[in-house]
């Protein structure tokens, strides 16, 4: 029981990590695909005012809905080592005591478990994985707080809010540029989730809700610390990414900047800690950048100077997208070069010719990544790029198939089974060891687009 009574928090903003829950395994940021959207919340609404929020969060109906979300996300275990089923046993046996501790303010969250996630540029992102019990409590709180707090946010904020997604931010950016605001103030914050000031955050939160029990519990989650290599380290700054509450808390803190920009009539779009302001000239852009430095300094946040700049809207990327001008001077979306490079790097990992996997196993790994990537970058208006990526991917898959068949006799036999002409089967079989060169041209007439459709390989174009 003592173990069950110490628990902690969670998840953040734009990460290619599973939204609202801890990731299953430490895998690469980019491999998870594009940013996930925040699921709709607000299943439990207080009957009146903002008092008694903690009691509302701990009602049976709200907890059941929160548990369904936690189970559906299948996150990894926290520092207690308990998975979903094991935590369910603890809850069945000790929930009355846990609930009483929560209501009386005696509950102490466990530290989060530190996990480092590789990023495509070679750096790493730190995640803090809360225990399953803490994820349940956080999700229950989120379902009560979200409908109260979210309506107070700026209309220019699109990250991790019900009914909003990254596409909305990209569409807003495109509309601003189409209107003639061709200069962007592109701002990225330096380690935002590691440097968020607890006192400032709690102060901004108190202006939105009055329940002392909820405020006290959120403060406990912020202060619970992080376990790294078996050692618990106290944290006086930051919101560990990995649990349900962190995105909402991030929006609470950053909304002050949104409201300041909005009051001055600026055209901007924000998604988590990425904010782009669109203006008509470089001079105006420099003024906005100086103003943003003051606003963020007031929150004790720092702009990442290496990733932030004032420049042409056509030379910067936003949430993986770039903008370009098509015929008729229409501003359209494209996949940014870095996002394309990351895509190809991940595809090379998934389609490497070593590892002894069958073609069906390769396709099974490819499908979710391709479908997620295609869904996220569906705003891109570049059909030639999609066709080129499709052809490149099928080229790699044909090389895998040749490597599997390996021997000339096997290649000849399998191609004949697939209906290849005699001369085609013989020429491909003769060049059996040249996997890459041999997987183009003649082999295309046998391992066609329809062949890969039957295998279940999604098309991007």
Describe the structure.
It is a single chain. By secondary structure, the chain is α+β, with helices and mostly antiparallel strands. The protein is 47% helix and 11% strand. It contains 17 helices and ten strands. It has helices spanning 53-57, 60-73, 84-104, 132-149, 166-178, 192-195, 198-206, 212-223, 246-263, 282-298, 337-350, 359-376, 383-405, 408-417, 422-430, 435-438, 449-455, and strands at residues 112-118, 124-129, 183-188, 226-228, 231-233, 267-271, 274-279, 309-312, 321-325, 331-335. Strands 2-1-4-5 form a four-stranded mixed sheet, with no helix packed on it. A hairpin with a 2-residue loop joins strand 6 and strand 7. Helix 14 (408-417) packs antiparallel against helix 15. The longest helix has 23 residues, at 383-405. It is globular. The N and C termini lie far apart (55 Å).
Topology:
Elements: H1 53-57, H2 60-73, H3 84-104, E1 112-118, E2 124-129, H4 132-149, H5 166-178, E3 183-188, H6 192-195, H7 198-206, H8 212-223, E4 226-228, E5 231-233, H9 246-263, E6 267-271, E7 274-279, H10 282-298, E8 309-312, E9 321-325, E10 331-335, H11 337-350, H12 359-376, H13 383-405, H14 408-417, H15 422-430, H16 435-438, H17 449-455
Parallel strand pairs: 1-4
Antiparallel strand pairs: 1-2, 3-7, 3-8, 4-5, 6-7, 9-10
């Amino acid at each position: 029981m003592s173990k069950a009574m110490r628990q902690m928090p969670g998840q953040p903003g734009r990460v290619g990590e599973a939204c609202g829950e801890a990731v299953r395994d430490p895998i690469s940021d980019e491999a998870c695909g594009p940013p996930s959207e925040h699921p709709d919340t607000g299943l439990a609404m207080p009957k009146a005012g903002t008092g008694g929020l903690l009691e509302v969060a701990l009602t049976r109906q709200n907890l059941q809905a929160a548990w369904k979300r936690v189970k559906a996300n299948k996150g990894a275990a926290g520092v207690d080592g308990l998975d979903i089923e094991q935590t369910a046993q603890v809850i069945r046996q000790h929930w009355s005591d846990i609930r009483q501790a929560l209501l009386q303010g005696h509950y102490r969250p466990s530290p989060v478990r530190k996990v480092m996630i590789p990023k495509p540029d070679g750096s790493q992102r730190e995640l803090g994985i809360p225990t399953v019990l803490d994820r349940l409590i956080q999700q229950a709180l989120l379902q009560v707080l979200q409908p109260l707090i979210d309506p107070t946010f700026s209309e220019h904020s699109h990250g991790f809010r019900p009914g909003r997604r990254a596409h909305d931010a990209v569409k807003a950016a495109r509309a601003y540029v189409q209107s003639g605001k061709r200069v962007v103030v592109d701002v990225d914050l330096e380690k935002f989730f590691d440097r968020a000031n607890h006192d400032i955050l709690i102060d901004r939160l108190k202006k939105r809700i009055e329940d002392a029990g909820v405020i006290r519990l959120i403060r406990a989650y912020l202060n619970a610390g992080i376990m790294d290599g078996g050692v618990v380290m106290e944290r006086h700054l930051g919101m560990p990414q990995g649990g349900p509450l962190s995105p909402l808390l991030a929006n609470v803190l950053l909304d002050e900047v949104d409201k300041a920009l909005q009051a001055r009539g600026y055209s901007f779009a924000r998604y988590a800690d990425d904010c782009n302001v669109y203006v008509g000239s470089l001079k105006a852009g420099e003024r906005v950048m100086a103003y943003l430095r003051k606003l963020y300094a007031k929150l004790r946040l720092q702009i990442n100077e290496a990733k932030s700049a004032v420049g042409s809207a056509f030379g910067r990327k936003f949430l993986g997208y770039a903008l370009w001008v098509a015929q008729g001077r229409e501003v359209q979306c494209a996949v940014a070069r870095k996002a394309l490079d990351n895509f190809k790097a991940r595809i090379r990992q998934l389609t490497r010719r070593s590892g002894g996997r069958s073609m069906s196993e390769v396709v099974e790994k490819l499908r979710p990544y391709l479908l997620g990537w295609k869904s996220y970058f569906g705003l891109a208006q570049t059909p030639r790029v999609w066709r080129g990526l499709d052809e490149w991917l099928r080229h790699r898959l044909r090389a895998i198939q040749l490597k599997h068949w390996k021997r000339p006799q096997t290649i000849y036999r399998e191609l004949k089974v697939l209906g290849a002409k005699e001369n085609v089967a013989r020429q491909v079989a003769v060049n059996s060891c040249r996997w890459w060169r041999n997987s183009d041209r003649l082999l295309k007439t046998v391992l066609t687009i329809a062949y890969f459709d039957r295998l279940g390989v999604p098309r991007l174009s």
